Amino acid sequence: MRAVVQRVDGASVSAAGTGHDPSAHGTVGEIIGEGLCVLVGVTHGDTPEKAAQLARKLWSVRILEGEKSCSDVNAPLLVISQFTLYGDARKGRRPTWNAAAPGEIAEPLVDEVVDRLRALGAEVATGRFGADMRVTLTNQGPFTVIIEV
Q1: pLDDT, tens digit, 9 for 90 and up, residues 83-100
Q2: What's the pLDDT tens digit per position in 37-85?
Q3: Among all residues, which ones are annotated catalytic?
Q4: Which of 3, 56, 65, 133 is packed most tightly, with the most Cβ within 10 A?
Q5: Domain boundaries in the chain?
Q6: CATH code for the structural domain at 2-148
């Protein structure tokens, strides 16, 4: 599993198909104040154990202001599935997605990350798997890291 983690001062995600207009975007997840916006990619061979490992790392990694973790200050996380994290654009002009796990494998593993974070005591907002989403955030720092498990 791969995660792009941004320290944020607020973040939200909206998805198409909310409300009466299927093309309209409505907010499906939001965190207010300092926290983490986490884009999660799943590849072949990832397991529920790796999802649990990623959740523990996200909850405890010390990247908030003052070298604090989300667990230290009870900071919220916005977790969004992002299959494009396993895109490969080294050849040609179009990325390939061969390394990204298919939705039927990826969705339960992203859900597992969220469930494990909540079990640890985290406040977690999410996007909508497979939806056309818009992510809005204020990157604090800016501070962005990649975590792989």
Answers
A1: 999 999 999 999 999 999
A2: 999 999 999 999 999 999 999 999 999 999 999 999 999 999 999 999 9
A3: 82-84
A4: 3
A5: 2-148
A6: 3.50.80.10
